[in-house]
Amino acid sequence: MSNTFRESGQNLFRGMTNFRRLTYAFIPSSWFSDLHTDLRRSMTLAYDEIILKALYIELLQKAKKIFEAQSGAEYIDEDGRELLAIEDMPEFLRLQKFVSALGELERNANLYNGLSSTKNLEDMGQVVQYLFDIELPSEFYKNARYYHASLGKTQYRVFDPSIFRLKAKFFTLKKLTKRLYRRLYDPNHLEISTQRLAYRLDRFARQRRGPAGELKHIKAVLDSIARSEEDLAREEFAWIFNEEFELGDGFEEVLTAIEESSFMGPDLKDEVFTEGEAGFVKLKEALGSKNSVLTGPILATTADPGIIEAAQESLKSAVIDEPLVDNETFFADFKGEDILDINEKDEPIVLAEEEEDEEDIDMDLEDEEDADEEEAPAIFNRLSPTVLALKAELEQLLGQDFMDPELTRRKGMDLPPGTRLRWDQNLLDEALRMFEPYEAYSQGGLKNFPIGLQSSMANLARENLDKKVMDLVRRAQQFEAIPVDFDGQLPETDILVEVRDFNKSAANLTRLLNKLNSLNLVRSHQVLSDVLYWQTATLLEAFNSFLEEEELYGVKGGDLSWWDGSQPVAYEAFDVQDEKDLKNYLKFQRKRIHFLAEEYARPLVTFFKNSQILRNREEERILFKWERILTELGKYEAKKPKNTIAVLEKYILSGMNVVDATNYYEKITADMLQAQSGDIFLQRRHELRRLLYDQCQVIASRTVETNYRAVKSFFDEKLAGKFPYSVL
Which residues, at least 6 apart from 608, have a Cβ–Cβ distance to it below 8 Å? Predict the structure, then answer.
C-alpha cells in the first residue's frame, strides 16, 4: 500500500510542476473563476487522499526502518576486544547513529505536522526529500498559488513520536546502551590488565616449576607490569580515573539528544546515565580491590606509604599464603581470548592448606564489616609502590653478570659447510670463571626477596649460570670460511689445519666437560658434547672421504677389462714399467695412508676414546676402520709378520702376475671370491682377486670362441662336402 501512495505522490508532484496560471491579458479573469475553484478543490483532495497520507505512511515506515536497523539485526562485534576510544567504539557509533536518526526523523515529522499552519511548501519539499529522496523542481515553487491555498485547507493525521517511546526504551535504546556498557565494563580492558598482573604475581609467588621455568615467570611478571603501566597511561582509560562518570563530549551530546527527543525524553536519558554510572562505580571498586599476595594492592591509592623504603620492607615481609583474588574463577570465561595472554600449559596452582580457628574467622568478618563502613581510598592511574619495588628487585636480578634473559637453549649445532671451527681459549677460560659471581650472589643477593621465594631464585641463578656457560662455549667457537675444490669438497689442507687446531684445544675441552659433569650441570655438558661431536664427526667423515675418493691401490680404469692376457697384469694395472716401479708405487701408497692415519685419524681416535661421545653405527664403523689402519701401520713399521699391508703388497708384487686365463680357476678359489674383511688392506686384495678372476673368464671365453671359429673355418674349407661328411 505504501508503494502505491509513494508512486501516486511522485506522479502527482511531477504533474503539479507542469501547472501554469490561468490568466491572460486579453481574457477577463471572471471567465476562469469557476475553474479556479475546481482546481483548488482538486488540489485539496490530492493533498488529503494522496500526498499527506503518503507522507504520513512513509514517516511510519521510516521510523520502523530506524528501529529495525538497530534492534532487529544480529549483534556482531566486528572489532572484537580491540582497544578503542569511546567515540570510535562500534557500540557507541550504533547508539549515536540511532539517536541521530531519530532526531532527523523528529525534525521532519515536526515539519510535516506543521504544514497545515505554516503552509510552507519548502518545508513540504524538505520532507519529501527526506522520505522519498526526491528533490522537487523549482517550477513547483514558482506555480505555488494553488498548492499553497489547498495546503491550508487540508485536514490530515498528525505524526505522534510518543507511540514509539516504549519501543525505543525496551527494544532499541536499552539494547544499544547495554552493548556499549558491556564493551566498557564486561570485562573492562584495564580490569583485565590489572587482574592479569595480580594473576602473574600470585603464580610467581606460589607456583614453582623448577629452574627452567623461573626466568619465564620473571619475564611474564615484568611484561605484565610494563603492560599495566602502559595501559594505565593510555588516554582511552583516562575517564576511569575521573571523580564523576564522564565519557566525553560525544557521549554527552548523545545524552542531550535523548533528553530532548520526543521519542525518548528525560526519563530515558536518566536511566541511560544511571546505568552507566553504576558500572563506573563498580569498575573503580573492582580496580581498587585488585591484590597480590606479594605486593598487596596493585594500583596506587591515597593510602599508600610515602617513601620507597617502606614499600621495600613490605615486599621483604610478604607472606605467601592463600591468594586474595580468585584468579582462576575470574579468567574462567576468557581463557581463549588473546587479550588475556594467559593460556599457558602450566600445572595447576598447589596451595598449602592452613587451619584457622573459628575465633580468627569471626575477627576477620568483624574487620571486613568495619572496613565496609570506611570510605575506600581513591585509586590513581599508576602501580602501587610495592609493585614497583618488586619490579626493581627483579630487574636487579636480571642485571647480574651471569644472568641474561635473552639467552635461549639450543639442542645442537651443525657445522656450517665451507667453514672450519677453531676454539677461543680465552672464552673457554671465562666460561670456567663464571662460577665466581654465581657463588657471590648465592651468599648475599637473595636477601631482598621474601623467604618463600629465595630458594626458587637461587635455583634460577644456577639455571642461568648453566645458560651463561653455554653461551660462552658457543662464542668460543670461531668459524672461518675456507675455499672448496671444484667438486665442492673442502681442501685437504684446510681440514688438516682444523684437525691440528682441534688437537690443541682437546685437552681444555675435555677438562670443561669433566667440570660441568662434576657440578651436575647436565645441560651445558650435553651442549658442549653435541658441539664436539658434530665437529669431530664432520672431520672424521671429511678425511675418511679422502681415502674413499683416492682409491688407494686402485687399478687403471677401475677394472681390468682392458687386459688381454698377453702381458703380466700387475705392471699395466698400476701403470708402471717393471717390478722396481711397482715397489715405488706401493711405497707411495703406504706413505699416503700413513699420513692420513697419523695426521688426521689419530687425534680424533684418541679424543673419541677419552670422551665417549660416539653417537651412531656409521661413525663407529669409520673409527674402527682407522683404528685397524693405525694398528696395521704400526705392525708394518715394527716388521711384525703377517701384517695386512705386507700381505696386500706381496699379492700385488708376485701374486697377480702368476694368474692367467689358463690357471685362474686354480689360483683363485670360490672361497677367495666370497671373502670379505673390515681391514682395508685385506679387502683390497679380495677386490683385486675378483677383478682378475672376472677378466680371466672373459679372456678364456674369447679364446674358446676363437678356437671354435678356427676349427669351423678349417672344416668348411677342407672337409665339408667330402666323405664321410658328404650327403649320401
Answer: 536, 614, 623
* CB 696, CB 704: distance < 8 Å: no
CA angle centred on 544, ends 543 and 549, rounded to 5°: 100
Residues 18 and 138 in one domain: yes
Q: What is the pLDDT of residue 530?
A: 79
Q: Give tens-digit pLDDT for 238-264.
A: 999 898 999 999 999 999 998 998 888
**Residue labelled with grid coordinates 498528525:** 158
Of 104, 137, 170, which residue sits at a domain end? 170
CA-angle at 336, arms to 331 and 339, nearest 5°: 75
Per-residue pLDDT tens for 637-686? Answer: 998 888 999 999 999 999 999 998 889 889 999 999 899 998 989 999 99
Whether the CB-CB separation of 642 and 678 falls below 8 Å is answered with no
Residue type, 158: V
pTM > 0.70: yes or no: no
Residue 354 pLDDT more than 60?
no
DSSP H helices, 186-247, are 189-206, 211-232
Burial of 163 (0-12, 13-18, 19+ CB in 10 A): exposed
465/553 Cα distance (integer angstroms) = 54
Tell me the one-letter amino acid at 560: L
| 264 and 321 fall within a common domain | yes
Do 279 and 309 reside in the same domain of the chain? yes
Q: Is the pLDDT assigned to residue 211 strictly greater than 90?
A: no
Residues 279 and 385 in one domain: yes
CA dist., res. 37 & res. 32, Å (int): 9
Domain-located, residue 350: no
The answer to whether position 525 is within a domain reads no
Over 50: is that where the pLDDT of 298 sits? yes
Q: What percent of the chain lies above the pLDDT cut of 70?
A: 74
Q: Strand, coil or helix: what is 723?
A: coil
DSSP per residue over 287-338, as a string? HHT-EETTTEESEEETTS-SSHHHHHHHHHT----S-SS-HHHHHGGGTT-T
Q: What is the pLDDT of residue 361?
A: 37
Comparison of pLDDT for 277 and 311, the residue scoring more: 277
**690 and 571, same structural domain?**
yes
Q: What range defines the domain where residue 326 resides?
A: 187-345+372-398
- Residue 648 CA to residue 702 CA, distance in Å, equals 30
For the chain, the farthest-separated pair of C-alpha atoms sits apart, in whole angstroms, at 161
Question: What whole-number distance in Å separates Cα of residue 128 and Cα of residue 112?
Answer: 10
Residue 537 CA to residue 622 CA, distance in Å, equals 10
- Residue 674 inside a domain? The answer is yes
- Of the ranges 164-173, 305-314, 401-410, 429-438, the best mean pLDDT one: 429-438
How many residues does the structure list for the chain? 728
Query: In terms of DSSP bridges, do strands 296-297 and 291-292 run parallel, antiparallel, or are they unpaired?
Result: antiparallel
Same domain, 153 and 235: no
What pLDDT is stored for residue 312 in this prediction? 59
Q: Do 130 and 197 reside in the same domain of the chain?
A: no
Query: d(Cα 144, Cα 576) in Å, to the nearest integer?
Result: 128
According to the per-residue pLDDT averaged within each range, which of 139-143, 305-309, 668-672 is highest?
Answer: 668-672
pLDDT of residue 477: 87
Instruction: Identify the top-confidence range among 419-423, 575-579, 620-624.
Output: 575-579
Q: Which among 113, 141, 170 is the end of a domain?
A: 170
Q: Which residue type does 28 have? A: P
What is the number of domains present in the chain?
3
pLDDT value, residue 584: 94
pLDDT band at 309 (very low <50, low <70, confident <90, very high): low
Residues 149 and 209 in one domain: no
CA–CA separation, 180 and 124 (whole Å): 37
User: Is residue 176 a part of any domain in this protein?
Assistant: no
DSSP 8-state assignment for residue 461:
H
241-277: b or e for each residue (b if 16 or more CB lie within 10 Å)? beeebebeebbeebbebbbebbbbbeebbebbbeebe
